[in-house]
Amino acid sequence: MARKKRSRRTGGAGPRKGEAGVRSGGTGTGSSGAGAGRTGDLAAGAGGGAGLDGFWAWGAPPLELDGLPTIVGPDPLLPSPTEAVMADISAMVAGREFGSIEEANAFLREATTAGPLPSALPATPLARAQQLVYRAMDVGGKQRVALARKALGFSKDCADAHIILATETARNQREEMELFQQALAAAERALEGTGYEEHLPHLWGHVPGRPLLRALFGLGLAEWARGARLAAVEQLPRILSLNEQDAQGVRYYLLGWLLDIDELVLARELVGRYRENTAVWLWGDALLTFKEKGPSSGRAKLRKA
To answer: pLDDT per residue over 159-193, tens digit each?
Structure first.
């Protein structure tokens, strides 16, 4: 089967001429006209969607961020090279009780300085499947696909294996959507009854929760690529509500998309939610101000960016 170009996912959503997109954490637009700003269909929950209400589910203050998120690995939809190590560490401390954070840190220091961490023996079919996914990250092409399919032979709940198939084997947008939907369903099944809620809104720090975040991101990118813009935009706030620190850089995609569909009120709320002095965010803020108030106001922020 032919492999499709990966730039549609890792480079935003493959915007067509005149459309906006986000590439490697940046914002861009094909529109240059200023707008008066509006709430639009999304904020009203068009099509039964929840809009962006999930951003403030915990009533948290705006986040002050020092810089770009640490996105480890070449593809935000696949596990990073360090995730397998983190999974082994999580397995080592699982079930142990520490009297203090200092005691826990001392245990980890001793374990990590004694040599390579022993890979945790998979206790469940899903854990075995996830180990195969981590092995798949060290290879590519047919080998990666074969390991993903082998993983699904152990457990259909291995969301990352479904994601590999979506990114490597889908022949068209319909197949890609179906595979990401299967990934999302698998991730939700895998987390059901595990108490993952106690890790909210910092789910990225809970390694077993990461496949859910990746599946949601992939589904949003696939929705955008096929032109279902409101459906795509509604996926990303869910990710941010589950993991507000945004280790995946989802907010950069979301800001570009909101600017593209002229959801200026929601874009302003997003900019206000994440406060950071990075060029990409300042450029996005400048473009938003240009759309809201016109060129003169936008230029001042553009100089700052």
So the answer is: 999 999 999 999 999 999 999 999 999 999 999 99
Burial state string for 128-153 with b = 16 or more CB within 10 A and e = fewer than 16: bbbbbbbebbeeeeeebbebbebbbe
Q: Which of 71, 91, 89 is nearest to 81 (CA)?
A: 71
Q: What does 266-297 look like in DSSP terms, one character per residue?
A: HHHHHHHHEEE--HHHHHHHHHHHHHHH-HHH
How many whole angstroms separate alpha carbon 245 and alpha carbon 200? 11
The pLDDT assigned to 119 comes to 62
Dihedral sign of CA atoms 290, 294, 295, 297 in order = negative
- pLDDT tens, 56-70? 444 456 787 765 555
Three-state secondary-structure class, residue 30: coil
Name the token pair of 108. Answer: 């980890």
pTM: 0.76
CB 274 within 8 A of CB 251: yes
The number of C-alpha atoms within 13 Å of 19 and in the hemisphere containing its C-beta is 15
Give me 253's structure tokens.
Answer: 């995609």
Distance CA 9, CA 213 (A): 15
Which one, of 12, 6, 51, 30, lies nearest residue 221 by Cα? 12
Res 247: pLDDT: 87
Q: Which helix (H) or strand (E) holds 43?
A: helix 40-43
**Coil, strand or helix: which one is 160?**
helix
Which residue from 29, 144, 154, 156 is spatially nearest to 77, judged by alpha carbons? 144
CA 154 from chain centre, in angstroms, equals 26
**DSSP state, 98?**
-
Do residues 266 and 41 touch, judged by C-beta distance below 8 A? no
Dist. CA 206–CA 195, nearest whole Å: 11
> φ, ψ for residue 117 (rounded to 5)?
-65, 135
